[in-house]
Design goal:
By secondary structure, the chain is α+β, with helices and mostly antiparallel strands. Helix content is 61%, strand content 6%. The chain is built from 12 helices and 8 strands. Strand 6 and strand 7 form a beta hairpin. Helix 3 runs parallel beside helix 11 and helix 10 packs antiparallel against helix 11. The two termini are 56 Å apart.
């Protein structure tokens, strides 16, 4: 940096490739080594927290939700791990970023499926919102397009929303594979975003796929967030949004600043390598916090949704007036109903039977998930 200020450029500042890990570690001073050790320890703790949480989820949750919740909880530890590897081995940054991107593309689809599962599955969701409509004027694509019509909630609409997230989980790995093939042939440079280079068009394609997937998740969340309040869906969605913003938007902004040399080089790191270095260190700290918070949010005991059968019975009971049958006479009032049977001779004697048929509670009790 002193060389830059004096008008002389250090050789590493103009280098197109990040330094080797040995060169980077030799250049670290005592505070730098302490920072490396601290961030590595935070990554290890995040992994241990996730493993403990995964064991708990595996033992306590129903099998239909088990894998989905584990996948979603693994997002932050996986991003933290890939960032830690990229911090120690700067030349692996492209591959660690690709790995984190592919994993989170799958997590976005899993989050949509989790919301559907928490509503009782696709059939029950369609029954609960039989006459409802999806509001498609939501972020990140169409939050300003308030004139867009509301779409009926049908099996076909839900299918296209699933396609919106599934396409991202499928095409993101395809684009990553294409990038690696072009990179091996020398045609792909990660931070070269000129119109003649494939990196620009691949990144634009990934951006369109990402926005489409996030849009589908936002549409479903906006509809089910009230129903799933007892499932703590709003904090879960907030954690998911934080991962999206930090892993994509924050990293993109830092890399753009580094490409324009707003972030100066610090030998042996060039401007672009230093931008990635800073982004990785921030992600490790942020994902560590999200891992700890996710453990609190997903470990809580939640109540199951009220069964539709109970809802239908309650609606029918409200339409009926409570009745009391006494000696064959029907008396309508608001008290519990007692049926008194007529006197009958049994073994030379008569008996009376009273049967209590009143309901103790018109609300169906909830049950704990785990």
């Amino acid at each position: 940096m002193d060389g830059e200020a004096n008008g002389t450029l250090h050789p590493s500042c103009g280098a197109s490739e990040p330094p080797y890990s040995e060169e980077l570690l030799r250049s670290l001073d005592l505070p730098g080594r302490f920072l490396f050790a601290t961030l590595t320890l935070m990554t290890l703790i995040a992994i241990l927290v996730f493993i403990e949480e995964a064991v708990y989820i595996y033992r306590k949750t129903p099998s239909s939700k088990r894998s989905i919740i584990i996948w979603i909880n693994a997002a932050a530890p996986v991003i933290s791990t890939t960032s830690c590897i990229g911090m120690w081995i700067p030349r692996s940054t492209m591959f660690t970023d690709f790995t984190a991107g592919i994993f989170f593309a799958i997590v976005i689809h899993k989050f949509l499926m989790m919301m559907i599962k928490e509503c009782g599955g696709q059939k029950l969701l369609l029954r609960r919102f039989e006459n409802g409509r999806f509001t498609i004027s939501t972020g990140p694509c169409c939050c300003c397009c308030l004139c867009l019509p509301r779409v009926p909630i049908t099996r076909q609409t839900l299918f296209w929303l699933k396609v919106g997230t599934f396409q991202f989980a499928v095409f993101r790995p395809v684009l990553v594979f294409l990038s690696i093939v072009l990179w091996s042939n020398g045609n792909y440079v990660l931070y070269n975003l000129s119109p003649k280079e494939p990196a620009l068009w691949i990144n634009i394609s990934m951006g369109v796929l990402t926005l489409t997937a996030l849009w589908a998740v936002g549409i479903v969340f906006r509809k089910v967030r009230t129903l799933l309040t007892c499932k703590n869906i709003i904090p879960k969605f907030a954690l998911y949004q934080f991962i999206v913003i930090l892993n994509h938007l924050q990293t993109t902004i830092i890399n753009m600043l580094a490409t324009q040399r707003v972030i100066p080089c610090a030998p042996p790191l060039s401007s672009t390598a230093r931008g990635s270095f800073i982004a990785q260190q921030l992600l490790i700290m942020e994902m560590f916090l999200i891992t700890v918070i996710s453990r609190v949010v997903y470990r809580r005991k939640y109540h199951d949704l009220e069964p539709l059968e109970c809802t239908d019975e309650e609606a029918g009971d409200k339409k009926q007036t409570p009745k009391t049958i006494l000696n064959g006479t029907v008396v309508e009032d608001g008290s519990p109903k007692f049926y008194k049977s007529s006197f009958s001779a049994v073994a030379g004697s008569s008996a009376q039977e009273f049967v209590y048929s009143g309901t103790t509670d018109s609300h169906c009790p909830c049950q704990n998930n785990f």
